[in-house]
Fold this protein.
Amino acid sequence: MFELSPTEKINLKTIADTGNKNVSRRAMIILMSEAGQKPENIAAEVDLTVRVVKRWQREFSKERMAIFPGSQESQSRSGAGDHLAEESQIPEMAGQSVEAEVAQVAPVSVKNGGPQEQLSEPVLEAQSAAPDEDQALVEEPINKKKKKAKDLTKKVKKKRAKKEKAAPLPIQAKVGLEPTDSMAEAGRKVLAFHFERMLEHEPGTRVGEDIEELHDMRVATRRMRAAFQVFGDSYTKKSVKPLLQGLKKTGRALGPVRDLDVFIEKLHQYQRTLAESEQDKLQPLLDMLQTQRDKARKIMIKHLDSRDYRKFKKSLGTFVNTEGLGAAPVKLGDNPEPNQLRHVGPMLIYDTYAEVRAYETVLDGAPISTLHQLRITCKGLRYTLECLEEVLGSEASQVITETKIMQDHLGDLNDAEVAAGIIKKFLKKFAAQQKQLPLEAQQSPEQIEAYLYAKQNERHELLVSFSAAWDRFNRREFRKLLARSVSVL
């Protein structure tokens, strides 16, 4: 895209390694662009949108190092701060970090030999302010007296230290459970594991180019809600109530978009089975779904940009990083109550399994609403097993797989039922709209009706085959596997 001079490369690498978070990401964009990386890959790497990446590529092409605060070029341009104001106004950036331009002090030369561009101390030492709490600091004039600069730097350091204390744990491949963990500590580990994954997939969810990013983020929020169901009694109600509220709000924001993604993807799959001349006849339904998705995405982005969501992330980050925070008191001594994972885990698993098995008394001729509740209960069993899998026997993997097969069968049934209902409503509205048009302009609902019949047929087949799926899940061999997986505790 553009060539960098040796001097620019050295300074960009220095900024990327030592600059504040936002300036560092800007430097990474330029370095990765020069290396031939695609904007999509760069965006994923630096946790920004593709649009913002392309914007900084354009800015660098025009202004070079002047886009970095503290460089000689930026110091010679009075408009250097304009970039920050523009970036904060970009919809995709709303609610994300605002670059903190703290007061300039004497420039420091980069010691890599040869004539170098001068980078200010704030850039090199990354004295950045926290996004929202430090807005007042961001707006401080750059050229103040040295005393004000010193005081400001102290404030920034204090704010940064406070923020870093509540920073999320590094992403880990395993939860790290031990059988001797207290229930509160085990829950904290599980929550930290999925909290990191929620944060990991948030940038991709915001961009919206890969629907699996949203799926993975939504799964992470669901796993955390499940973790609170498993470990919730180990914490005080006061400590977990706002966290659960935050998870519920986030789940409600993500859910409609993900559900529509699934609906649209399945409709596209069906569309590809039709003759090319017939595929366009599904377009009115696709247009309606896409319109609904666009509206749902706006609501989702509004939530992700909200102060409540930022506050929730900060609170949850502090909770999962502070051992013992919010833990309920435990009775110890000569008459202790069960508190370790190895003592409480088996009971939790068998309690949720009992809730699933209880449905066998009402499944004969059960309505879809009952099967929907069974699906939710199966999901609870699966999530409980997955929460504790690291301390269970090797059989746990097969138990989880069998539970997922049952859950997926019921999930497909639920999806077909919901889809049929949506299509029926659409056809009714579509027919009314067509009546308002001249006869020659009216469109046939034939293929949309055919898709409705396909969904109704899918629902029927899943209902008919449910009995066999349940018998497989509810067999003695499954219970033996479950027992062996739990017995290691």
